[in-house]
Amino acid sequence: MNVDAAVPVPAGGPNLREVGMRRSLRRVFALGVAAAVVAVPACSSSSNNSNDNSGGNNNGASKVEVFSWWTGPGEEDGLNAMISDFKSKNSGVEFINAAVSGGAGSNAKAILAGRLQSGDPPDSYQRHAGLELQDDIKAGKVQDLTYLYDQEKWKDIFPQGLIDNLTIDGKIYSVPVNIHRSNLLYYNPAVLSAAGISGPPKTWAEFLTQAETLKNAGKTAISIGPGWTQKHLLENVLLGELGADEYEDLWNGKLDWTSGEVTGALETYKKVLSYSDISSASADWQPALDKLIDGAAAYNVMGDWADAYLSGTKKLTYKQDYGVVPTPGSEGVYNFLSDTFTLPVGAKNKAAAEKWLIECGSKAGQDAFNPKKGSVPARKDADKALYKGYLADALAEWQDSSTRIVGSLAHGVVANNAWNAEIDTALGLFVGDGDVAKFASSVKKSYEATK
Ligand code: GAL
After folding, report:
1. What is the pLDDT of residues 36-63, one digit of tens each?
2. Ligand 1 center to residue 294 CA distance, Å?
3. Which end of the chain is more exposed for a tag (fewer CB within 10 A), N or C?
4. Residue 90 exposed, middle or buried by CB count within 10 Å (0-12, 13-18, 19+)
5. What is the pTM (predicted TM-score) of this model?
6. Rounded to whole angstroms, how far apart are CA atoms 318 and 279?
7. Is the distance from the beta carbon of residue 337 to the nearest atom of ligand 1 less than 6 Å?
């Protein structure tokens, strides 16, 4: 099988075929091409689907329980906007919001795993596109949604490369609501100018020089939160130091984690962390951003959901009260992740869950959700006028065919769940002991053990 088979470039949207993938996902690209020739009959009603699990509960149409981790400021506004559009179209359906707090699903994922294991799935749950979802597909946890894609004509609406991230053996298992960007450096312009710094750094080496200046000025150069935010920072230091090609090779086994290049990048990460407030790390990403807003810290690396927090929740003005640029060394690169919703096997309210999924994939739903969530729509036909400030720039860059796309580690795209969990453990030790060689060899070993 030709694993590098070209995936057609979708009109009006970027080509995701370059997204960094491990071998299994590269295989999926080829399978995705094959899938295009497999005719799947359109199905207008859920009752024709052999996986109907509505269990006679009023035909599963009267309520829907949706599981996510969008509870905090800057997160729940987007969800609420989509729920309200859903309710306006489905007045007879009770919406049960089963969101569990904790950025990046830090609490939600474990609770969800327990529910799936005990045969008590919600009717739809949030999963990242990429290898995180692929694990669920392979484990038989989610139902094939190809019939909904045919019914709603989504195959022409979402970029092919994104659909490939949701597909195994030509069957599509999830509905994407957005595209987020991981590689963003937020900064407080007033803190920079007070320290005599003219602008954000273009390289991590320049960041380290600035960090020393900021430290001498009594500022935290970069604020940090819990483990997942440390991993989020790690992926973006690696991206900036290694470049997009080698960054992708970290995840597909081609680049040796114990090589000089990678350990050099890890040394840089260690130095960056030494200028952070890790000894008094914030409990989540919002309080880490608060330190930037308060002027205690100059920088924070976070995804674009932080823009929704700063501009929406905190009512700050982009380019005036705060700035956002690509993380050092990653200009022209979009380190992407995508939130998607599934139909779990055993969902009790399948008919209502399908309505929710239709909402998630709809133009109205995405244009209600994304401007508030701080993401750009997964659909190619969004109403551009709705995306303002930072998001207008983000949408233009996402849709620019010269933008290079890679996938996020911390948000489920490039590493399967087993490897990601091993990286979490190793990283927890690394931020404590700073042993680069030990961290690199442990990540290398766990890749081999989990692939
Ligand atoms: C990501 C998720 C985003 C945002 C972020 C912070 O994993 O994809 O939508 O919620 O976590 O919680």
Report:
1. 222 222 222 333 333 444 444 468 899 9
2. 23
3. N
4. middle
5. 0.89
6. 30
7. yes
